[in-house]
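For the sake of clarity, the format in which proteins appear in this thesis is described at this point. The fold follows as a row of integers, each naming the local backbone shape at the matching residue. One such record is shown here in full, so that the layout can be seen directly:
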Amino acid sequence: MTREGKQAAAGDYVLGTMNGPELRAFEQELASDPELAHLVADLSDRMLSLDNVSETEAPAALWARIEAALDNPATDEPQTTVVPISKKTSQQAPGTPWMALAACAVVALGFGYILGATTLAPPEPRVIAVLLDETSASPAVIVEAFGDDSVHLVPLETFEVPQGQVLEVWTLPDAETGPVSLGTLDETREAMLTGPDLPEPQPGQLYEITLEQAPGSPTGRPTGPILVKGFARNPVL
């Protein structure tokens, strides 16, 4: 075989696309050809280095933001890049070296995407509000409000939610708009909520949680008892 033929065959062998008589003939050649053995070993090491990537657990906040994005997909269609393939390239046999290199590139891009997704720094909140229990004046919930109409709730206490009722989260962007619901929860838990299109959250903006009849306030305004409330402030970053 020529060197180009050996490179192509080595790529097919490492990727596991050989079988039957072709595989047996290649392994016989491999045992007697040092150059071919070197090509196989080198390509195997390259593929192994791509596979030796330690797993990284994605932060819970990242998964919450991903779920929120899936519930509210962007309206813009994703851009697709089409790469034309020349007639000469498309007619090459499956065993040519470019296929092995393309396979390596796909694997590398896949690992790069996974690592990038798990190491992205989460966005910083625009404002933070500490919601207080009116009876004891103790912190009960932390609200992180972002500039994309989403809020991150971190409970510090557990609220009792009777059957048939829900916790409803509200904000007051301004007096003219009035209170706006950001969403409901059927139990006390950390959550990412995405409300309607609202102005940029500002310092002094009111956030509160009320107890409402399921599935939520029938009037679009708080009707149940206020469990906790607080005013937003800019974080010191």
The chain has two domains: 3-119, 127-233.
